[in-house]
Write a structure and sequence with these properties.
Helix content is 34%, strand content 26%. With 236 residues, the protein is an alpha/beta fold. The protein has a 6-stranded mixed sheet, sandwiched between helices. Strands 2-1-4-5 form a 4-stranded antiparallel sheet, covered by helices on one side. Strand 7, helix 6 and strand 8 form a beta-alpha-beta unit.
């Protein structure tokens, strides 16, 4: 497995937001983590990256991540696109993309920026525009493009569809599909359960800090409990 998480726990004071979960992502997989708002999905993702204090074991590419500085993760191919996009609002689109390659020292950075512009034509049109003035969908494209500039082996995506209009949601999910087709391993946290499960190979369902279901994505799509709780369909 490229990523293995065992007994992951996250606390906020006396509150256990994540209650000792296990999950794994194999190289080349697209795995989704679905659940209602407040289930602990984002806390789990941030804890995997070391952005929250955690207990339990997180192993990436066979190496335990305990004690490893967060800034080292992109150098090893583990990159996160946070909820809310997190672009550098005062920098231009081009400068944001360049920041995604801060850990690289090779000669292919300009070629990779050109590749992002090919994948995201709207970013090319706005390459000199300040990132904070972009629409929500454009900022999401920029956040994904910036992450891809680090040439990730494992991409963690936190709620990429949040706050976007339906047409832009469809576009973002097309982009995620294309990224996965290039061979990038993806762990996707997403409230839109149907879209996530239609895209993923496998899925985990998280409720109140626990993993309550784990299976192949198509089986979760057909599960009556999932259909009723997350797809808005009657179990009857």
């Amino acid at each position: 497995m490229l990523l293995e998480v065992k007994g992951l726990e996250v606390r906020y004071g006396g509150i256990r937001a994540v209650k000792g979960i296990d999950l794994a992502v194999a190289e080349g997989e697209l795995v989704c983590l679905i659940g209602a708002n407040g289930a602990g999905k984002t806390s789990a993702l941030k804890a995997i990256c070391g952005l929250h204090a955690r207990s339990g074991k997180v192993t990436y590419a066979g190496e335990a991540l305990e004690g490893l500085p967060v800034f080292e993760l992109p150098r090893r191919g583990l990159v996160m696109v946070p909820e809310g996009r997190g672009v550098f609002a005062q920098l231009s689109v081009a400068e944001n993309l360049a920041m995604g390659a801060y850990s690289r020292q090779d000669a292919d950075i300009d070629a990779d920026i050109a590749r992002q512009y090919e994948s995201f034509p709207r970013l090319k049109e706005r390459r000199h525009q300040t990132a904070g003035t972009l629409s929500g969908g454009e900022q999401q494209m920029l956040a994904i493009g910036r992450a891809l500039m680090s040439r990730p082996k494992l991409l963690l995506l936190d709620e990429p569809s949040m706050g976007l209009a339906p047409l832009m949601v469809a576009k973002i999910f097309d982009i995620v599909r294309e990224v996965a087709a290039r061979g990038v391993t993806i762990l996707l946290v997403e409230q839109n359960a149907r879209l996530a499960l239609e895209l993923a190979h496998r899925g985990y369902v998280m409720e109140s800090g626990n993993i309550t279901l784990a299976d192949e994505a198509n089986k979760l799509l057909a599960d009556p409990k999932v259909r009723e709780a997350y797809l808005g369909e009657s179990a009857g």
